[in-house]
Amino acid sequence: MNRTRIAGLVVLMFVAVGVTLSSGDAVFGQKKKKLKFDPEIRAVQTELNQALRRVDSALAEEVIGEKGKLDVKSIEELRKCRAAILTAIKHAARAQKLDRNP
Fold first, then answer.
1. Mean pLDDT of 43-72
2. Residues 48 and 88: beta-carbon distance below 8 Å
3. Cβ partners under 8 Å of residue 93, min gap 6
4. pLDDT tens column, 3-40
5. Are 96 and 37 a contacting pair, CB within 8 Å?
6. Please, where are the H alpha helices in the chain?
7. Is the pTM of this model over 0.70?
8. Distance CA 43, CA 37 (A)
9. Do the beta carbons of residue 53 and residue 62 sit within 8 Å?
10. CA 3 – CA 1 distance, rounded (Å)
């Protein structure tokens, strides 16, 4: 093997070792800080995600499972409910972020 090829392989090895040893934002030799979540806000986020799944399934059942005439008013209300839940999820995520970094 010629010297250029060997030098290239050595550089690749150093890069690979450097990538595997680095841990994201932490400097080599330092431990990365673990983010702490507020348990009350996390519980709210979990409940909101569960509510979103339930509204999505109700909306799908109303649209797909309905036989005969569709009830447009109930579908519109479910869509409004879904939009409100998505807004609440965004606000809860922002509250969690503000709680971690005041």
1. 88
2. yes
3. 45
4. 555 555 455 455 444 444 444 555 566 766 666 788 89
5. yes
6. 3-21, 39-64, 72-100
7. no
8. 10
9. no
10. 7
